[in-house]
Amino acid sequence: MPTPTHIAWSPAGGVRALDQTLLPHEERWLDLDTLDAVAEAIRVLRVRGAPLIGVVAAMGVAGEARRTGGGAGPQGLEAVRRACAVLGATRPTAVNLHWALARMLRRAEAAAAAGEDLAGALRAEAQAIWDEDAAMCRRIGELGAPLIPAGATVCTICNAGALATGGIGTALAPIYLRHERGEALHVLVPETRPLLQGSRLTAWELGRAGIPCTLIGDGMIASRFRQGDVAGAFVGADRIARNGDFANKIGTYALALAARAHGVPLYVLAPTSTIDPATPDGAAIPIEERAADEVAGFGGRRSAPAGVRVWNPAFDVTPAELVTAIVTDRGVVPPGQLARVMD
């Protein structure tokens, strides 16, 4: 089966999105036709994944330009600036969000200066961002596919598949391409606490595609690596620093340490827009902290005692020395050679 469809333009010119907080039990589509609705969907993870957040934010800016009249005057441009500020405040770690918003604002300023129709220009720019992301995913898959031995078992974490992007995914892209070619392979899927993006999302989309996978608890990763049957770990990234350190879903650092201890190569797969030249190293990456109730319970049911302290970073930083290679749409490079694929 093909990868799932999860975003579209709404009839009103906004964003139509599959609510990922309800998966795998319910497939509910939402029409995000106001700026607040788009911001809320990004903030509470109805749409998530660094590349997809960028695409949806760009679509949200285009929708806001249409709702506010979309002319070329200063009022339309101010509405775009306000939309970019609101959406930019939703998630601090994923650099793709800010990259996409900066691109939309530049296009808006150029359109205003040229007297173009602002709404039309921004709709086209958002669609271009989406189309480019899909193409980048495909290219990442093509470059990463040779890294998977025939018939191999590989491991991932969180969800860096189709649900996280505008295409076939980043970390899962090589897996999808090998599967398209009729090659057998197997994917280990850690559940990825606290929000279970592995068990709820990755296992769901791999199952729909007919790709065999096995769900494991996060604490089982090292024991499984020790068995010696895992050929590689393929993970996404929300921000890659200039030195090759990267931020990804919490638990990635522990996976990387276990991979190094057991001789399992670790590959980071992300579009070049995820590389942030302005961030020198992992220590400079802002890490989002989320609500305590995500850890203290799940699905509306509390599992922890009342009053217990909770620390809930959404991401962790993995140092470059634990990375075998970074796979981007422009090439496969060791983390210390990112300059070769950067602008």
What can you see in these coordinates?
The chain is α/β, with parallel strands linked by helices and 343 residues long. It has 2 domains: 7-138, translation initiation factor eif-2b, domain 1 (Four Helix Bundle (Hemerythrin (Met), subunit A)); 142-340, Rossmann fold, CATH 3.40.50. It is built from 10 helices and 16 strands. The chain is globular. The two termini are 36 Å apart.
Write the layout of secondary structure elements.
Elements: E1 7-9, E2 15-18, E3 29-32, H1 35-43, H2 50-67, H3 74-88, H4 95-114, H5 118-144, E4 153-155, H6 173-180, E5 186-190, H7 197-209, E6 213-216, H8 221-226, E7 230-235, E8 239-241, E9 246-249, H9 252-261, E10 266-269, E11 275-276, H10 293-296, E12 297-298, E13 301-302, E14 315-318, E15 325-328, E16 331-333
Parallel strand pairs: 4-5, 4-7, 5-6, 7-10, 8-11, 10-15
Antiparallel strand pairs: 1-2, 2-3, 8-9, 9-14, 12-13, 15-16
Helix pairs in contact: 1-2, 2-3, 2-4, 2-5, 3-4, 4-5, 5-6
Question: What are its keywords?
Answer:
343 residues; alpha/beta; Four Helix Bundle (Hemerythrin (Met), subunit A); Rossmann fold; 2 domains; 7-stranded mixed β-sheet; 4-stranded mixed β-sheet; globular
